[in-house]
Amino acid sequence: MSDVASNRPSIGSMDANDDLNGDLNDDLMSESAYSSFSSQQKQNRSGSFRNSIDADSSFSSSAFLHAYNHEDVDGNAPLGPNCIYDLTYGSDQARASRNRAPKTSVTINGGSTTVVNLRTPTSRDIKQIQLSKLKAKAKDSELQRYLESEKDYAAFESSYNSLTEDSLQMLAGLSSDKDSSNTTDHMSNIPQVFRESEFHLDNPRVFRQVIGDSTVVDIQESSGFIDNPELQNKLSHYLDIVEVNLVKEISSASNSFFSTIGDIQDIHTQFNTSTGQFRTIVEKLEQLETDQAHLGASIVDKIIRRRNVERLESLVLQVQLVTKILDVAHHDYRAGHHAQCLERVAEIEKLVAASPQSEYSASFPHPLVPLTDLAGLGDVNRQLHDLKAECSRGFVDRFVEILMVDLRDHYSRVPLDDTYERISSSISSKRTHRPINRSFQTLEETTKNQLAQFVQILSKSGYLVDAFTQYQAKVVVEIKDIIKAKLPTKNDNTPSDSTAPSRASSVPPENSNTPSSLSSHLRSMSDQEFESMLRTVFANLSECLRRLSAHQKLLLDLALTAIAPDTSSSLDVTTFDITSTINKAIELTQIRMAKVINVRSEQLADLSLERYLRFYGLASAYLQECELINPGYVASNAGSSLNEWIKNHTTYFVHRFHSNTLRNLIAECDKDQWKEVTAASTLSQTQDLVNELIEHAKYVESDGASGFSGATWLQALSVVPEPSETSPQIREDIAKIEIGNESFFVPDLACSSITHIRDYLAIQKVFSSRNSTVENNLLNYFKLMNSRASQAVLNAGATRTAGLKHIKTKHLAVCLQFIEYNIALLEACEPLFHRTRASAQPPNSEELTYERVVGNYKDHENELFSKLVSIMHDRTLNHCAAIVKINWAEPLKPPQQCHSYMETLVKETLIVAKALSKYLPEIKYSFVMSQIFDNYKKLLVNCYCTKLPQFKDFNEKHSLLKDIDYFRVKMSELSGYGNSGQVIWENVNSLPTIEDTHMDEIMKHNIEGEQRPQSAEPVAEKKVSNEELFDVSKELENE
Fold first, then answer.
1. 113 — phi, psi (to 5°)?
2. What share of the chain is helix, strand, coil (3-state, %, to 5)?
3. Which of 242, 290, 425, 560 is most buried, taking the most CB atoms under 10 A from its CB?
4. Residue range 1005-1016: mean pLDDT, rounded
């Protein structure tokens, strides 16, 4: 036990000031405190040291093994630093083994914290772990295999013997010896501190690390030193390791060292041999240089000199040939053979440039030499340039003339109708039965051959690019002349004939106009003249640009095929592409035409819809034609002026069209006589337009599934005149305009307004981007039409503007029909106003909506009804004033059936009834007449019963009843009459006369006398009086 313990480092040594030491590990128990052979009784701890399946105790896995861990010489507590065991129980046991009292406090964290009142933790301090309940209970079958392995585990447990400290130490010693035998000589066994550059033993830290846990000075006997064999052995072991490693390194390096020395000797021997060989080679080379090199060099110099002489001779011959060919070229030029002269000049240029393509290059013994820098040929170069320029100028002019004549002849030869037939077939999918004139694609063979010849000649002379440049400049001038030739001049007396089969020459007029005079001439043209001019100019420009595209293709083909191979390499074929010229021509035409059209901007805005659509169709067709001619053309800035002008002007036209239409509406409304239209042709045309509008509304509502698409409204957009359709059949029996199940008498205003409405819808279809604006304009048109109709009839405006003396019932009835006609038309065309429906507008919006317009018309209709009733009411009041002045005692003179006021009243009522029954539906007619008769009842009863004085006798009353009977007889058959006459008669009949009042008094006295004894005579007298009264009533009934 003591031997084993003596070989271990002491981990429990403490100094005298142990209570003040901050190292907690110093308080651990010594090894003997944990030995199984210790006779000292220790407090038994609950549980077993065996805490795992491998039976490794918590003590042996910590304190015992840490005692032999040389890498951690400072050491920690067996259960880790500052563990509960160290702070409490373990510390107390260690102190008890040394006969010391248990510690009641401990200092940690480097002395910054002191913990007092230390005590052993109890079960209350360590809370029990609450295990969570299993979510799913394991089945017995799942645990069966674990239960089967229980026997094996019991056998495994029984095979363990209790491990003691001594047995563990013996095992540790054996394993450490085995490990040390394997790694005892490895340099890693030497601590790192010995390898540091700052290794100084006077440094306490370094010294502490060197000696480890060994005690050098005895604590109890501090007066002298004692030997520490463990430390000495450790240091000696380190020295041995170093020595062994040094010997190994030296022994391993000695073999390579001696082999290297042998290699150096071999290299030295080879070097000496190579030096001798090199000296031999140098001697041989010197001998060769003396005997052969100088002789060969002289021979080579002579050969080079001879070759130079031959080349000089060839050069002289080359210059001589240049001068001879130049003389021949001058001769050809003087003889007028310009093509041959250019060929000579081209050959000279090849000789001067030493081109291998020269036909004379093969006749020279040596390759040609470039003569461009030869000073003696300076005059030759000047003569060549002059000859080339003089000869090429004529070819360039002829080349350009051929192309321009072909261009001019083509666009002036094609008829206008053929041009627009081709444009129409290109921009629309509509097929035509007429053949399409595509002559712009065909060029005559003679023209092609001439152009090919000129391209070859000009390519040789180097003036082909100049010819193309001049041609492109001429094209731009020709485009300007096409436009200028058709502009009006002060000498123009008649408009140009747009139907002529050929065009006039594009040569500009001799007398050019100033800008101001040209503008005035353009404004003074009639609409037909200006349209004809545009039609001709656009057609000429279209054919010209189409011919230019054909020229473009031809010239590119000639540039690829007709140019000689020896010159094609120096020319860029893309230079001959006139696409940029075509683009410039298109841009120029749009700029010029935009300026010309802009002069007549106001006149164009005031055109009728049909004429404006023809103008818009021409301009749009030309713009699309430009896009088809050159799809790569991108209009920008000034190049898009015509397109932008057309877009902006359509907006202006929509505005002006609306203003002009409203102005026309006001004029037509002011002059309308408010009579129904009877002309069958006018009614038939109006009915057809109404049907178109209704069918178009169905087309919009059904998204094109049914109804009228409005295609015929767009015929004016076509640049090809459509064949005239057969005139529509006129219905001779038509008298009213039908909308659905209703029919209406309409005034002239309805016939003219339906055309305007159709035009609004046509504009909406053509300029779909302005649908909202046009729809709002149309609602304003309906609103103004309603307002002006109200002013003309209700406010009697027609008496001042249309020459009417009075607004009669017939006028009111016709106006009523017109209002009802517009209401029915609006309701039938309701799908056309989906953008201005009230549901599509924000709440409380002041925008005009479809519902508001229809509501205004219905309000106007009610006002007309009220006006009719009001007129009859006022006339009845006038009759009531006349009734008061009548002398009812005066009998009627034969053949009068009633007084004049009643006769007039009946006559007026019959006239009103006749007019209303003719123009209004039965329901509305009865409604108005019922209101008139209601007024009669109120006014006549009031006048008869309250304003007339009491009748003297029955004769006066009978005279009034005759008037009422006349009223009843004449009007009882009228709609709305009801019981008007009966009510009036009963009220008047119930009026007592003065005579009746007197008779009542007599009757009253007779009744009082009957209550007294009376004779029979008064009774007989009373009977006679009643009989007389009855006879009078009977007579009244007979009358």
1. -130, 135
2. 65, 0, 30
3. 425
4. 63
Look at residue 227 in the predicted model and tell me its pLDDT.
60
CB 962 within 8 A of CB 893: no
Q: Which of 666, 670, 695, 853 is nearest to 777 (CA)?
A: 853
Tokens 């599934």, located at residue: 705
- Binned at pLDDT 50, 70 and 90, residue 265 comes out as confident
pLDDT at 879: 92
Angle, helices 338-352 vs 378-413, to 10°: value is 130
8 A C-beta contact, residue 615 and residue 645: no
Residue 557 shares a structural domain with residue 686:
no
User: If residue 737 lies in a helix (H) or strand (E), which one and from where to where?
Assistant: strand 737-739
Domain residues for the domain of 788 are 658-721+729-859
Categorise residue 803: left if φ over 0, alpha if ψ from -120 to 50, beta otherwise.
Answer: left
Q: How many domains does the chain have?
A: 5
Give residue 12's pLDDT band: very low, low, confident or very high (50, 70, 90).
Answer: very low
Question: Which range scores top for mean pLDDT: 74-78, 235-239, 250-254, 390-394?
Answer: 235-239
Higher-pLDDT residue of 567, 883? 883
Enumerate long-range contacts of 584-588, CB under 8 Å, 24 or more apart: 584/476, 585/475, 585/476, 585/479, 585/544, 585/545, 585/548, 586/545, 586/626, 586/629, 586/630, 586/633, 586/639, 587/635, 587/638, 587/639, 588/476, 588/479, 588/480
Instruction: Please count the other Cβ atoms lying within 10 Å of the Cβ belonging to residue 151.
Output: 9
CA distance 384 to 326: 8
Distance of alpha carbon 89 from alpha carbon 42, whole angstroms: 11
Helices 378-413/527-561 angle, 10° precision:
140
CA distance 499 to 416: 7
Q: Peptide bond before 508: cis, by omega within 30 degrees of 0?
A: no
Angle at 144 between CA 138 and CA 149, to 5 degrees: 125
DSSP secondary structure code for residue 415 in this structure? -
Rounded Cα gap, residues 78 and 94, in angstroms: 12
Angle made by CA atoms 422, 424, 425, in degrees to the nearest 5: 65
Identify which has the larger pLDDT, 374 or 925. Answer: 925
Would 760 be classed as within a structural domain?
yes
Under 8 Å between Cβ of 213 and 9: yes
Last residue of a domain, one of 804, 830, 859: 859
Q: How far is the CA of 491 from the CAs of 511, 520, 527, in angstroms?
A: 9, 13, 19
Q: Are residues 17 and 42 in the same domain?
A: yes
- Mean pLDDT on 183-209: 79
DSSP state for residue 36 in the 8-state scheme:
T
Average pLDDT, the chain: 77
Decide: helix, strand or coil at residue 738.
Answer: strand
DSSP letter at 56? Answer: -
Same domain, 510 and 593: yes
pTM of the predicted model as reported, rounded to 2 decimal places: 0.62
Q: Are 821 and 744 in contact (CB under 8 A)?
A: yes
Question: Which of 286-290, 378-382, 944-948 comes out lowest in average pLDDT?
Answer: 378-382
| Contacts with 945 (C-beta within 8 Å, 6 or more apart), sequence order | 987, 988, 991
Considering only residues 214 and 579, tell me which one the structure prediction assigns the higher pLDDT: 579
Determine contact, residues 653/614, Cβ cutoff 8 Å. no
User: Is 222 a member of any domain?
Assistant: no
Q: How far is it, in rounded angstroms, from Cα 902 to Cα 894?
A: 16
What type of residue is 768? S
The two structure tokens encoding residue 280:
């031999």
Angle at 127 between CA 123 and CA 131, to 5 degrees: 125
Q: Which of 50-59, 400-409, 490-499 has the lowest mean pLDDT?
A: 50-59
* pLDDT for res 90: 59
CA atoms within 13 A on the CB side of 625: 28
Shared domain for 622 and 512, answered yes or no, is: yes
Are 571 and 464 in the same domain? Answer: yes
